# Entry
Amino acid sequence: PQSAIASLLDVQQGPIKYDSGSNRYTQDLTIHNKSGGAVPTPISIVLDNLSYNAALDNASGATSNTNPTGSPYINVPTDVHLPPGQGTDWPGHQTKLTLVFINNLQLPITYTPRVVIGPAPR
# Structure
């Protein structure tokens, strides 16, 4: 099941910072493959229960086949500086991903990250 496979990845959330130049908030995530093997790709980070005051500006889409539906997600890009087949899915590898939020009310941004992996629809 997705939950067992997704537990092979660790997502660490950095602080949310305001960027006055873009009038956006950003947050870096570090995704670490803590398994002893490759993890199926693609890999997406879903932001469940994103606070009402925020929207994920760089979302790849919104969930429609996994609950809760309507949660924004972002796909984890493949690392081009690694040899073929050795992206985020490679054992022990970690990569960073930046989330960009719109938050016109300037209230705290909260969500619960969830990892979805493999080719199944989100």
